[in-house]
Amino acid sequence: MALPNELKVLSTTAMKMVFEELAPVFEGDSGYRLAVDLGPSLQLEKRLAEGEAADVAIVTRLGAQDLIAQGKLAAGSLVDVARSLIGVCVAKGAARPDLSSVEGFKASMLSAKSIALSKPVGGGASGAHMAKVFDQLGIAAAIQAKAKYGAGGARGLAALAVSRGEAEIGIQQMAELLAVGDIDVVGPLPAALQAVTLFTAAIPSGARHGDAARALIDFLGTPAAKIVIKAKGLEPN
After folding, report:
1. CA neighbours closer than 13 Å in the CB half-sphere of residue 78
2. Based on the domain organization, do 74 and 51 belong to the same domain?
3. Residues 28, 29, 34, 39: what is their CA dihedral angle, to the nearest 10 degrees?
4. For position 163, what pLDDT does the model report?
5. 232 torsion bin: left (phi>0), alpha (psi -120 to 50), beta (else)
6. Do 95 and 183 reside in the same domain of the chain?
7. How many domains does the chain have?
């Protein structure tokens, strides 16, 4: 059972490190405790659509707009928080894939023995986008044979699979790669293959603590919070 002063936050895993640093600050200032439940955006959007209760939701902007249309998020409560790029990682000291061009990226993906990714259906935004990229490059079948899909959330990060030696390359949101310390982040995808995901905060229609939820969303837009958001691999809005 939720505590009287507890704010339930359903948030994209890309905000993991942001909340790790900022949650204690907000809690100290507001007197509310944050119960942050992290997961892939598409999964969170599905849970909210099915009626799961929360005080704050941080999902993709497109997902948030869909949820408003369904009456699951309060109209007018949307605030864009951060933009995220998709990046690539390898194990510490391992050979780095070529991200300088589309052809270089394609060749690197074909030569890799295994690639950790978000699920293309029901996973994070990066998984759905990468499925389209591999199809566009004509290598979808080859990638499918070597893909390693995480379970989603903080325990299913692609970089964790790389750090454990389960995959040679990891592809996910840059902030999710940076959340794992013992890997090398090679960089973002080539610009022609990149997708920028806009993450948006909103208040679910059945929020128990609407005023505190609004205070948290406002807090994420402060200059101090934006410095942390940028330091954690995201671009503050």
Report:
1. 19
2. yes
3. -110
4. 96
5. alpha
6. yes
7. 2
SS3 (DSSP) at 132: helix
Alpha carbon distance 55, 74 (integer Å)? 11
Low-confidence ranges of the chain (pLDDT < 50): none
Neighbours of 120 (CB within 10 A): 20
Tell me, yes or no, whether 144 lies in a domain. yes
Dihedrals φ, ψ of 35, to 5°?
Answer: -105, 95
- The per-residue pLDDT for 79 is 97
Strand order in the sheet with 33-39: 33-39, 6-12, 56-60, 197-202, 79-84, 235-236
| Distance of alpha carbon 7 from alpha carbon 22, whole angstroms | 14
Q: What are phi and psi of 194, to 5 degrees?
A: -75, 150
pLDDT digits (tens, 9 = 90+) for 55-64: 999 999 999 9
**Which one, of 85, 98, 86, 94, lies nearest residue 184 by Cα?**
94
Give the tokens for residue 166: 């389960």
